[in-house]
Automatic annotation (TrEMBL):
Name of the protein described by the UniProt record: Acyl-CoA dehydrogenase
Keywords per UniProt: FAD, Flavoprotein, Oxidoreductase
Domain Acyl-CoA dehydrogenase/oxidase C-terminal: 228-372
GO molecular function ontology, one term from the record: acyl-CoA dehydrogenase activity
Domain annotation Acyl-CoA oxidase/dehydrogenase middle: ranges: 120-211
Ranges of residues in domain Acyl-CoA dehydrogenase/oxidase N-terminal: 13-116
Cleaved signal peptide residues: none
InterPro entries, A to Z: Acyl-CoA_Oxase/DH_mid-dom, Acyl-CoA_Oxase/DH_mid-dom_sf, AcylCo_DH-like_C, AcylCo_DH/oxidase_C, AcylCoA_DH/ox_N, AcylCoA_DH/ox_N_sf, AcylCoA_DH/oxidase_NM_dom_sf
Family, similarity comment: Belongs to the acyl-CoA dehydrogenase family.
The protein's required cofactors: FAD
């Protein structure tokens, strides 16, 4: 997927225009088609948004995490499916940059930054809880020429269009990470249609049958992926999802403001009804709180402060729950029209629920956040 060269990524104002003109008006169409058109993915590349956080020598612009979060918020405002593609691509690009050797970086980072190669994150097993990420399933066994990979991964965002899979596999005594090209023999991609939520993110099941990998396919240290590559990648994914959830809240505010201004009940504009005002006030407050939590997590990440880990958990916990509440209120405000494909709010509700499940479910986050609270008090 070729893109025109530009000196740097689009600024927030340009991203906002892109979302307003080319994404948000068509997001329901994307959902019905269950895919993001190639030309839209190419436009993301033209705007320099696939991996702008990478250093300039690898085709990025060294964008800080706070700004990256605002970019993902804007894209999430327009289409959560497209934001999901950015999320997983971010996880893979950042992982290759942090854990890859020189050869891996030279082979992949420029192409990932330009959007010429798209990445997919392969962790979840079809018969295991996504939260039980270290459970043995997919395996990679050493042979004289490298590795033999076998197993199946499911619910893989962007799996239908990805060129590079970052695959987590048991290597005996631990989990390791491998870079697997989608066109290698033994790789089978099966689309997963009719999913409720982020329906256009082109989910797939990926089967690996006796896939032969060169030694250079191993990313990072063997057997340490659960505590290194996975932890770092999931943290970035969690941050992107949190920012995208804030975007969903903003989209709900915009949809409800337009709808309640245009319609009346009993001679009174819907916007002037007290219960509508109450719900709108809740949305605005939740959006502002979520945005501030995301900015804090991003700033801590930029500063290299390990407190970013818990700050990201908190941001994602608040933003995802608030997005579900805001989208539900938006459907309520729209009444029967809230269930119609002619309005965006039903899609927002479906997409919002996904944010409570992926990159750490609400219930897992509650265990983690509460445990940290007890640890702080005990000090």
């Amino acid at each position: 997927m070729k893109a025109e060269t530009r000196s740097g990524p689009a600024g927030l104002a340009e991203v906002r225009r892109f979302v307003d003109l080319e994404i948000a008006p068509h997001a329901n169409t994307f959902e019905r088609a269950e895919r993001i058109p190639r030309e839209v993915l190419s436009r993301v590349a033209e705007l320099g948004l696939w991996a702008p956080f990478l250093p300039s020598e690898f085709g990025g612009a060294a964008m800080d995490m706070v700004t990256l979060g605002r970019v993902h918020e804007e894209v999430g405002r327009g289409c959560s499916s497209l934001r999901s593609l950015l999320t997983v691509h971010t996880m893979i690009s950042a992982s290759v940059h942090r854990w890859g050797d020189q050869a891996q970086q030279e082979k992949w980072l420029q192409a990932l930054a330009r959007g010429e190669k798209l990445g997919a994150f392969c962790l979840t097993e079809p018969d295991r809880s996504g939260s039980d990420a270290t459970a043995e399933g997919t395996t990679a066994v050493r042979d004289q020429d490298g590795w033999i990979l076998n197993g199946t991964k499911k619910w893989i965002t962007g799996g239908q269009v990805a060129d590079l899979f970052m695959v987590f596999a048991s290597t005996g005594g631990g989990m390791s990470t491998f870079l697997v090209e989608a066109d290698q023999p033994g790789v089978r991609v099966t689309p997963l249609p009719h999913v409720s939520g982020t329906t256009a993110s082109m989910l797939a099941q990926i089967e690996f049958t006796d896939v032969r990998l060169e030694p250079s396919a191993l990313l990072g240290p063997q057997g340490w992926a659960a505590g290194t590559v996975m932890t770092n990648a999931l943290g970035l994914g969690r941050y992107s999802v949190a920012c995208g959830a804030v975007g969903i809240i903003q989209a709900a505010i915009e949809a409800c403001a337009a709808y309640t201004t245009a319609r009346s009940a009993g001679g009174v504009q819907l916007r002037d009804l007290p219960h509508v005002r109450q719900m709108m006030s809740g949305m605005v407050t939740a959006r502002d709180a979520g945005r501030l939590l995301c900015e804090r997590a991003g700033a801590l990440n930029d500063a290299g402060d390990p407190a970013t880990i818990m700050a990201t958990w908190v941001a994602k916990y608040h933003a995802s729950r608030a997005a579900v509440q805001a989208a539900g209120d938006a459907v309520q405000i729209h009444g029967a029209n809230g269930f119609s494909p002619d309005y965006p709010v039903a899609r927002l509700y479906r997409d919002s629920k996904v944010t409570e499940v992926i990159e750490g479910s609400t219930q897992v986050q509650e265990l983690t956040i509460a445990a940290e609270a007890y640890r702080e008090v005990a000090q």
